From TrEMBL:
InterPro entries: Gfo/Idh/MocA-like_OxRdtase_N, Gfo/Idh/MocA_oxidrdct_glycsds, Gfo/Idh/MocA_OxRdtase_bact_C, NAD(P)-bd_dom_sf, TAT_signal. It comes from the Bacteria. GO terms for molecular function: nucleotide binding. Residues 40-162 form the Gfo/Idh/MocA-like oxidoreductase N-terminal domain. Pfam families: GFO_IDH_MocA (PF01408), GFO_IDH_MocA_C2 (PF19051). It comes from Spirosoma radiotolerans. Residues 203-257, 358-429 form the Gfo/Idh/MocA-like oxidoreductase bacterial type C-terminal domain. This is Oxidoreductase.
Length: 434
């Protein structure tokens, strides 16, 4: 029977239920494609931060229903459900364990807005359960699991959209076309800028786990440690076990655009330097970070700058990208605004400010069962995240690193290669074979 002739719902592979459940794995497999007029039911996992935008983004779309909210913090979950009911005048199902979302045969799509260390595993489990996936940036917490996410999406024939919203911006798509068409000449350098206001977070030390939080589930793939308010609910970004610093937070939008604009993949040479120069707090990741990614074989380079506090703008940009060519340069400010400056006199060239709908683009690809329709395909989840990981590894080791982008390993560097993955905690393990 052809894929589009069967029911859109999912069937239980009964013989595997007990063994898969024991390993913490999902137990549903796909049995269908979407029909053009089917209602898409979404489960949102992680609703305290970006998840709120996911709820709003999917709720505004036609024939799309946010059916389930999931969070490991019962207070966050209850408040989220209450807000949902007030805003949309209907109740929503709530669950505390993301595996319950995957086991629900009525859920078609999962939207993942957990902390970074959960992104790839949650998305892989969703693919194995027959769900399509919208996953927040970065798509992976380390390089290896990003590759495994790509493999899972292709193996299970799932639509996996990475939350790099600027990919759906009409203006930015036009800007990329200008770069490809030679408006600023030979484009040889991209500069990524992340100048965010990141204050001193102090050090709250360890404390008892709050009664409303499932700390074991929150930690998931990470090694177990004592609870601290230093981590929950936002400042986990600044600890290596859970986050990736600002280059792996806000910076993923800009790493993605650097690579997209230059038309490159992972680099061959990486140098990073930085540190903590402002605050004597408990952050582990650098406040200030400068990374240089070189592409000797194509004569291109990416410069990436993270600054956390008082600083200048560059051509009006705090968050964005600048592309340099031999006939001019292009400034991208935020997610939907570009300007160009041509020749030695910097004469104003084409410019535009217009956004797009990344959630809609995802749903359209889901309905069509066509990855070619995606603006933020799963490969961006791996590559845009991966280049940030490489910069962080170079910073942590304090030396220039040489990388083989074809095989995705460092050249003759055992210490660096060990940092391409992590030690996982059962049953929250990214599988070797998806």
């Amino acid at each position: 029977m052809k894929e589009n002739q069967v029911s859109r719902r999912y069937v239980l592979k009964a013989g595997a239920v007990s063994s898969l459940a024991a390993m913490g794995m999902p137990t549903f497999i796909p049995a269908s494609a979407f029909g053009a007029n089917d209602r898409v039911r979404v489960g949102v996992i992680g609703i305290n931060g970006r998840g709120k935008d996911h709820i709003q983004g999917f709720s505004r779309l036609n024939d799309v229903e946010v059916a389930t909210l999931c969070d490991v913090d019962s207070t966050v979950l209850q408040n989220g459900a209450s807000d949902f009911e007030k805003k949309y005048n209907k109740k929503v199902k709530t669950v505390a364990d993301l595996r319950q979302v995957y086991e629900d045969k009525d859920i078609d799509v999962v939207s993942i807005a957990t902390p970074n260390h959960w992104h790839a595993l949650a998305a892989i489990w969703a693919c194995q359960a027959g769900k399509d996936v919208y996953v927040e940036k970065p798509g992976a917490h380390n390089l290896r699991e990003g590759r495994k996410l790509v493999e899972a999406a292709h193996h299970y024939k799932r639509i996996v959209q990475h939350g790099v919203q600027l990919r759906s911006s009409v203006a930015i798509q036009e800007a990329i076309k200008h770069l490809r068409d030679g408006l600023i000449g030979k484009v040889y350098m991209a500069r990524g800028l992340v100048y965010k206001w990141r204050p001193d977070i102090g050090n709250k030390g360890n404390s008892p786990v709050p009664s409303e939080l499932n700390w074991n589930m929150w930690q998931g793939p990470a090694q177990a440690k004592e609870f601290s308010k230093n981590y929950v609910h936002y400042n986990w970004h600044w600890f290596w076990d859970y986050g990736n610093g600002d280059i792996g937070n806000q910076g993923i939008h800009e790493t993605d655009l650097c690579m997209w604009g230059l038309d490159v993949g992972l680099p061959e040479e990486i140098t990073s330097a930085g540190g903590k120069f402002l605050w004597n707090d408990c952050k582990e990741t650098p406040e200030t970070l400068t990374s240089i990614y070189k592409y000797p074989s194509s004569g291109k380079v990416i410069q990436f700058e993270v600054r956390p506090w008082m600083t200048n703008k560059e051509d009006g940009v705090e968050i964005g990208n600048i592309f340099y060519g031999d006939k001019g340069y292009m400034v991208v400010n935020g997610y939907s605004d570009y300007k160009t400056f041509l020749g030695k006199e910097r004469a104003p060239g084409p410019a535009r400010n217009e956004g797009g709908d990344h959630y809609l683009n995802f749903i359209e690809a889901v309905r069509a069962r066509d990855t070619a329709k995606q603006n933020g395909p799963v490969e961006t989840a791996h590559l845009a995240s991966g280049i940030a990981h490489l910069g962080n590894i170079a910073y942590r080791l304090g030396r220039t690193l040489h990388f083989d982008p074809k095989n995705e390993v460092f050249v003759s560097d055992k210490e660096a290669n060990q940092m391409l993955t992590r030690k996982y905690r059962a049953p929250f393990v990214v599988p070797e074979k998806v």
